[in-house]
Amino acid sequence: MRSFINIIKGNYLQYVRSYSFLITVAISVYVALSLVPSPKATYSTIRLGAFTGDYNSVWIGLVIAVMASTFLSLAGFFLINGSIQKDIETRIGHIIGTTQISNSSYLFSKLISNLCILITILGVVLLAGIVLLFVFGSQYTLQLLDFVLPLLLITVPTLFVVSALSLALEVLFPKKRFVQYGIFLIIYFVSLFGFSTEKNATFDMFGIQEPIAIVTEQIQQQHPSESTKLIIGFVSGGRDLDKVITVERISFSQNYVWNRLLWIIIAMLATFLVSVVFHRFNIKEKLVLSSKKVSLQTQNSAGFQLSNLAITPEFSSHVSPLIGAEIVMLVRKSPKWLIGISFCLMFAMIFVPLKFAHYYILPLVWFLQVGVWSDLVTKDISFRTYYFTASSYKPLQRLFVSRILAGVCIALLIAMPLLVCYLVELDFHTIVNIVLGAIFIILLSVFFGTLTKSKKLFEIVFFFLIYSNINLVTLTDYFGALHNSVSYTLMMILLSVVLFCMSYSLKKIRYGN
Question: What gap in Å lies between CA 401 and CA 412, rounded to an integer?
């Protein structure tokens, strides 16, 4: 029991003491403030037809609970995914593997610690929501039960399921992070788009169908002929004051409570089942055995020759060999099936309409490289080569810059079919915007990786950027799909310069130069 608690405590404190946690909290506060837009805002987050709720405890609590259950669960998966891999990289897992703690106890401790991390962020969102209640709903008082109960019944079970799903995918697909992401996204979007208006929906992972159905009934009682179709997200258009209703207390049924408990039980059962096939940090055994066979075969035939060390390679201070080496390493990191999908999408850019390729295919094929680009500056920490690279010749001017250029080259190579199409159209301005987009996303990866020493934050931000791009949100258009003005181009140049200068300065401080 003591080991169980220590693992939970250690994993939780390791995260909350990091820079990435402070940044995550800051982002959570910003997102929470955005979830409940001001009465004069030009967008809304939850709308039932044309109806929105008045800012009382019930409505604000419901909005935060629903949005957190759908969007925080998505960001939370990327945030906590890789907790077992973290133990492998830090060698803590090898120590745990020699102890008497069972596989199920270890996985359950990781499950609880990951859940505590997500609940901590949820708590920050909750406090921000209380502030918004007093700011926007000054005529209402805080009804704590009405405010907190939706979070407990809607959001917390969802976060429990996400924590268990993250662990299960890590156990079943070790070191295949992109496969884990793909399976989770399939489950997520199938669950989200499978939403129905039935009040007693059994397969509602997010837990939003019954409370939305109750609010819909309240609206239909007052406006029986009006449409109450649910729209979730950042929907453009302000609130219609004639369509604002006061949502009364939501009474959750007993079946709904049991259904949410059932999801928690399923998550715990899944964690127990995958513990049976947990590798217990022994995933390199086959590789070691195979390498021993090769070494035994070549030990007698290949002798060690001191004469091979007599020739000293000629020193070169050029950056181009480093760029080539970095490109090769980045390409080799990608699995073959991912490279095949990327080439198919690149090939499709030539034949689909130009705008469609720019709006949808380009951001999608760039997102497929998230695992490669997130590793640009964090791989030194993962592979323990930081001090080796820091002691190299001019690490900032040569190695750091070469990695950025290698990432930009790959991004531009992926976008080359689209660039050629725009070149045929003589649309040079859009070509410049795409090039700036490639530079911006690489510098964003470098900045977040240098700042947090982790790939998590960039992966989360990049996913939401791509999600917004596919939904044609103008604010997140970094590659010129929706903007074609000179001011936009100048803004992207400025942002890229700022990101590079900040990343360079942070790296200079880390290297001690």
Answer: 16
Distance between CA atoms of residues 188 and 180, nearest Å: 12
Which carries the bigger pLDDT value, residue 203 or residue 432?
432
User: Is 114:83 a contact under the CB 8 Å cutoff?
Assistant: yes
Query: Which among 217, 42, 21 has a CA at the least distance from the CA of 121?
Result: 21
What is the SS3 assignment for 180?
helix
- Which residues are CB-contacts of 213 (< 8 A; sequence separation ≥ 6)? 197, 198, 199
Whole-number pLDDT of residue 311: 53
Distance CA 245, CA 105 (A): 48
Place of tokens 């918004």: 132
CA distances from 156 to 107, 172, 209, 464 (A): 19, 24, 15, 22
Is this structure's pTM higher than 0.90? no
Q: From CA 473, how far away is CA 339, in angstroms rounded?
A: 28
| pLDDT (tens digit per residue) in 229-249 | 777 766 666 677 777 888 888
Cβ contacts of residue 427 below 8 Å, gap of 6+?
none
Q: What are the tokens at 507?
A: 């790296």
Do residues 222 and 49 touch, judged by C-beta distance below 8 A? no
Q: Calculate the alpha carbon distances from 147 to 142, 165, 271 in Å.
A: 8, 28, 31
CA neighbor of 72 nearest in space, from 196, 172, 176, 157: 157
SS3 (DSSP) at 46: strand
- Residues 25 and 218 sit within 8 Å (Cβ to Cβ): no
For 396, the token pair is: 């900032």
Cα–Cα distance for residue pair 95/86, rounded to 1 Å:
13
Residue type, 307: S
Q: Which residues pair with 236 in a beta bridge?
A: 43
Residue that has been written with the tokens 């059932």 in this structure: 262
Q: Regarding predicted confidence, which is higher, 438 or 326?
A: 438
Three-state SS letters, 435-493: HHHHHHHHHHHHHHHHHHCCCHHHHHHHHHHHHHHHCCCHHHCCCCCCCCCHHHHHHHH
211-225 pLDDT per residue, tens: 888 888 888 888 877
Tokens of 312: 């000293």
| C-beta neighbour count of 359 within 10 angstroms | 18
Residue 126 pLDDT more than 80? Answer: yes
**pLDDT at residue 342 above 60?**
yes
Q: How many CB atoms lie within 10 A of CB 298?
A: 9
Are 69 and 249 a contacting pair, CB within 8 Å? no
